[in-house]
Each structure stands twice: as structure tokens, then as C-alpha cells.
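[step 3/7] fold_predict: job queued, chain A
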Amino acid sequence: MPKKEVLYIVVGLFLSFSLSSCGRLFKPDTFVQTMEPAWAVIEVREGLTYEKAWSSVVDLLVKRFDLEMVSKDDGYARTAWLYTWTGKLNRNYRVRVILKFSADKTAVHVKSDAEYGGPGNWFAGYDTILLETLKTDIMGSVGRMTR
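[step 4/7] structure written:
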């Protein structure tokens, strides 16, 4: 076999392998697959009114997400899906945030929904880094101080 043909075969195999790898789905390390994502609970510090706590928490969300559903009276907010949480556009991975104040307005319940896969083939779960980031940010904004 001439050297030129061998080179074409090797290059062809390399390109074929490279292109087939591009379509594979890689689950992010921060993704935990589950049907019931866990809620984190942050107690609102004493003396902070619901109005102030609500404004602070919603302000945190709108800095990173578009709000899809908001009900101040119910203490509920849900963001739209975000496809750039990993730092670049990824149509195969998306996250959103859901928060709910307790009925007595003394705590904020928050969870991160995450899905990976793609339209018609999404796997549900949550993103551990997003949930930890949310907990830290909300605790810093409205959370009860530790003694």
C-alpha cells in the first residue's frame, strides 16, 4: 500500500473518531442524578422583615438568572433554565433555581434543579456546586448568624 493511501486512512480514522466523540454526552462532575433534589433550608435572621428578606433573595437570583415565575405573596420564585452555568453555552446541561419561604416567613427553602442529556432525553437531578453557592449567598444575605 502506498504511503499516501496509508496517510489518508490514518487521517480519516482520526477525523472519524474525533467527530464521533464530539457528539457524546459527558455528565458534569457536579451533577447528581435523582428524581427528588434536596432542599437546603436557611433560617432568616431575627429582626429582618419578610419584605427585606424577599428583596435580598430575589436580588441574588436576578444577578445570575432570568426569573420565570415569581409570587411574593406565596414566597415562591423559580428561574428559567440556564444553559451557561458551566461557564460556556452547553445545550446538553441546564440548571434552574427554585426557592420557597416557609409559611411563617422565618426560613428560605432552596433547591437547584439540573438536567443533562438533551431534548427528549433529559436526566433529572441537581448541581452540587450551584446548591452550595446558593446556600452560601443566601446565608450571607439573610441568614441567621452563628453564635
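[step 5/7] annotate
The longest helix spans residues 3-22.
The chain has a mean pLDDT of 85.
exit 0
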